[in-house]
Design goal:
- With about 120 residues, this protein is mainly alpha-helical.
- The chain is built from 4 helices and no strands.
- Helix 1 crosses helix 4.
- The model has no long low-confidence stretch (mean pLDDT about 95).
């Protein structure tokens, strides 16, 4: 019998191997795809743990259990630019928000279809 965990993967992201390969060249586009892939793996893990409901189909619903925005960043990433758009000095505040919104849109598409996007 599988025991459901009561702690979100977000509580200790470093202890969970998401299995997503870091892009060899960090560009905004590659990091957007990377951050979305990691977020999806973290969400899958929280669904497996019973933190998130299997029936969730929108990003906003994730907020019912956790601060879902934390799925979009990894503040302890060994390469800061791969962990958060806040680390991209060439982006202003609106630019950072735009990149997070792009990641969120990819995650939303996945939640709606459960298909690779």
């Amino acid at each position: 019998m599988e025991v459901k965990q009561t702690e979100s993967v977000l509580e200790n992201t470093m202890a969970f191997d998401h299995g997503v390969t870091l892009p060899s060249k960090l560009t905004l586009e590659s990091v957007i795809r990377y951050r979305a892939a990691v977020a999806i793996e973290w969400i899958k893990e929280d669904i497996r743990r019973g933190i998130q409901a299997e029936t969730i189909i929108t990003f906003s619903e994730l907020h019912n259990a956790v601060d879902a925005n934390m799925y979009l960043i990894d503040e302890s990433h060994r390469l800061p630019k791969a962990g958060s758009f806040y680390e991209w000095s060439e982006l202003n505040v609106q630019g950072v928000c735009d990149q997070f919104n792009r990641v969120m849109n990819i995650v939303n598409d996945w939640l709606a279809t459960r298909q690779h996007v």
